[in-house]
Write a structure and sequence with these properties.
The chain has nine helices and four strands; from the N terminus they run E-H-E-H-E-E-H-H-H-H-H-H-H. It is an alpha+beta fold. Helix 4 runs antiparallel to helix 5 and helix 4 runs parallel beside helix 6. It is globular and about 50 Å long. It binds glutathione. The site of glutathione has 10 residues, from loops. It comes from Pogona vitticeps (central bearded dragon).
């Protein structure tokens, strides 16, 4: 039997967090090898483990996979989080990419210069409120089902939940005018594998404070 996937990244959210979420939602246990210094990153870069000299990198099923989307798609395909046919896959990708656009804006906020953070935050909240959350509310309303596509959990649902929770960290009542998203959040948070990941002590990471953001910047810049 193949061993547990091994995740190579720093001990923070960044681009690895949605990968952690996908594995957790699929009920797959994983190990983490944390990159703590620039030297740790350089070691991986020099030993040929990173095709583009970048992380996230995940050792899984005898492969060393890089590129966040490729890793997520492999996990989604392997663990049935990618729909049942090519039309469902297209919709799942379309919703996933929308959530990813918002999620990425939130993910990089702590690494923005202090004097632009306030403006960035306003832009993110405006986009969440007027572009992304209305779109997902509309999708859920259009079919009245529990999940975004095919009434079955997919990588798009997992990323949407992750993104909702991250957006709520920025503004607690951000879902106030999105009742279907509120219900979606409650429902998906209660899926046993996800519920477990949301418990304290899981491998889920918290949003970086200034010190953690500065540490990560030292490794990658
Ligand atoms: N498109 C890549 C981007 C990866 C990326 O930018 N990784 C950063 C850390 S989050 C990195 O490894 N930076 C070091 C470098 O580019 O030399 C992905 O999604 O995996």
């Amino acid at each position: 039997m193949a061993g547990k996937p091994k995740l190579h990244y720093f001990n923070g959210r960044g681009r690895m967090e949605p990968i952690r979420w996908m594995l957790a939602a699929a009920g797959v246990e994983f190990e983490e090898q944390f990159i703590q210094t620039k030297a740790d990153l350089q070691k991986l870069q020099h030993d040929g483990s990173l095709l583009y000299q970048q992380v996230p990198m995940v050792e899984i099923d005898g492969m060393k996979l890089v590129q966040t989307r490729a890793i997520i798609n492999y996990i989604a395909a392997k663990y049935n989080l990618y729909g049942k046919d090519i039309k469902e896959k297209a919709l799942i990708d379309m919703y996933f990419e929308g959530a990813a656009d918002l999620s990425e804006m939130i993910m990089i906020l702590p690494y923005k210069p202090a004097d632009t953070k306030e403006k960035e935050l306003t832009t993110i909240l405006e986009k969440a409120n007027n572009r992304y959350f209305p779109a997902f509310e509309k999708v859920l309303k259009s079919h009245g089902k529990d999940f975004l596509v095919g009434n079955q959990l997919s990588k798009a649902d997992v990323l949407l939940l992750e993104t909702i929770l991250a957006a709520e960290e920025l503004k607690g009542d951000i879902l106030s005018s999105f009742p279907l998203l509120k219900a979606f959040k409650a429902r998906t948070s209660n899926i046993p594998t996800i519920k477990k990941f949301l418990q304290p002590g899981s491998q889920r990471k918290s949003a970086p404070d200034e010190k953690a953001a500065a540490e990560a910047m030292k490794i990658f810049h």
